[in-house]
Amino acid sequence: MDCKSSYPSSILGPASTRALSDSIMILAQLSDPHICAPGQRLFARADTAGALADAVARLNGLATPPNLVVVTGDLTEHGTPEEYGQFQRVMAPLAAPYVVLPGNHDRRQAMRDAFPELPAVGPFHYTVEDFPVRLICLDSLIEGSGRGQIGPEQLAWLDRTLKAAPERPTVVALHHPPFSTGIHHVDAVGLDDAEAFGTIVAAHGQVERVIAGHVHRAMQRRWFGTIASTAPSTTHAVDLDLRPGAGAAYIYETPGLQLLHWRPWAGLVGHILPLGRFDGPHRYGK
Ligand SMILES: [Fe+2]
């Protein structure tokens, strides 16, 4: 099971071309692009493919582009083959290798058909071992539900996988945030087994961070001995309404992505990068 759960290195290209140095790494997280079929707009408004294309261009244009990109779910709005095809077309210009995991809007069979390198059976949990920071991707999708669950088998795999490399700095990625966000309608579709997940993470001090999506906002908190944070969506945001029982609403705030910068002597530093067209950079003093 373990060998089938590592992402094939052949997908990622030769190691020598990937790292800034042997020890430095930039991991970018894109989340919740909600790609629709070609020519369709989300909620009849948003050009989600155009928004994701902007994110790809932003990453490609960075002075220090990422070594690896993880897309933390809701790749598509309806989980159809047409939408996965559109997602792949938009992502194709990305210079860095990328890996994917499912969100509640995704469907495993269509995703597996689009990404045959994903595990052939069961949920899509796997590791990426080729970089200074080890990435562990989990699958929290319950097909047909907005809620998430990792499940006992995957949690046992996570525990074994973390035990196997206690010396390696590690990021664990999944779609559903493992904490209460304070946004009522998001928490109503939260992660069922967050406590069991946290107990395992707490037992493995090499977990530098747990990253998630789903909430379409940037959040962070102390969580079971590490940091848990969420990335904004590349398209619409969930409106910030913290009143108990507040209804679901979205808003077109500036979209963004999360970027994690690893230097072994400095630790893992997190950034939120807004996506858009901005004036600059300008040199100071000019
Ligand atoms: Fe989403």
Structural overview:
By secondary structure, the protein is of the alpha/beta class. The protein has one domain (3-7, 25-274): Purple Acid Phosphatase, chain A, domain 2 (4-Layer Sandwich). 21% of the residues lie in helices and 22% in strands. It contains seven helices and 13 strands. It has helices spanning 9-12, 48-61, 81-91, 108-114, 152-163, 184-187, 194-202; strands at residues 25-30, 68-72, 98-101, 126-128, 134-137, 170-173, 207-212, 219-223, 226-230, 237-238, 250-251, 256-263, 267-274. The protein has a six-stranded mixed sheet, with helices on one face. A five-stranded mixed sheet has the order 3-2-1-12-13, with no helix packed on it. The chain has a two-stranded antiparallel sheet with strand order 10-11. Strand 1, helix 2 (48-61) and strand 2 (68-72) form a beta-alpha-beta unit. The longest helix is centred in the N-terminal third of the chain and has 14 residues, at 48-61. The termini are far apart. Mean pLDDT is 93; it is low at 14-19. Bound molecules: fe (ii) ion. Fe (ii) ion is lined by residues 32, 34, 74, 103, 214, 216. Residues 32, 34, 74, 103, 214, 216 line the site of fe (ii) ion.
Compile the SSE list and pairings:
Elements: H1 9-12, E1 25-30, H2 48-61, E2 68-72, H3 81-91, E3 98-101, H4 108-114, E4 126-128, E5 134-137, H5 152-163, E6 170-173, H6 184-187, H7 194-202, E7 207-212, E8 219-223, E9 226-230, E10 237-238, E11 250-251, E12 256-263, E13 267-274
Parallel strand pairs: 1-2, 2-3, 5-6, 6-7, 7-9
Antiparallel strand pairs: 1-12, 4-5, 8-9, 10-11, 12-13
Helix pairs in contact: 2-3, 3-4, 5-7
Bound molecules: fe (ii) ion.
The site of fe (ii) ion (FE2) has 6 residues, from loops.
